[in-house]
Design a protein that fits this description.
The protein is mostly helical. About 45% of the residues lie in helices and about 5% in strands. The chain is built from 3 helices and 2 strands. Strand 1 and strand 2 form a beta hairpin. This is Protein tyrosine phosphatase, mitochondrial 1. It comes from Mus musculus.
């Protein structure tokens, strides 16, 4: 059982970056293949994908984002997202 969980965790790590690239691509293309990165649920809540570092300024200024709750693994946010420390 432990070996199975280890394989699943390894597979998730291997597949994360290719699927993230695919999602970024879908967010940039126009037409029927386009997929929005986030959606406004109400005046205080946005629901969407991982907020990448290059989106921070736009999210803070245009969407008034003041905090993020994520359910991602640490390896998914380590290099691509801002932290509370400002990195």
């Amino acid at each position: 059982m432990a070996a199975s969980a280890w394989l699943e965790a390894g597979l998730a790590r291997v597949l994360f970056y290719p699927t993230l690239l695919y999602t970024v691509f879908r967010g940039r293309v126009r037409g029927p293949a386009h997929r929005d990165w986030y959606h406004r649920i109400d005046h205080t809540v946005l629901l969407g994908a991982l907020p990448l570092k290059n989106m921070t300024r736009r999210l803070v200024l245009d969407e008034n984002v003041r905090g993020v709750i994520t359910m991602n693994e640490e390896y998914e946010t380590r290099f691509l997202c801002n932290t509370s420390k400002g990195s």
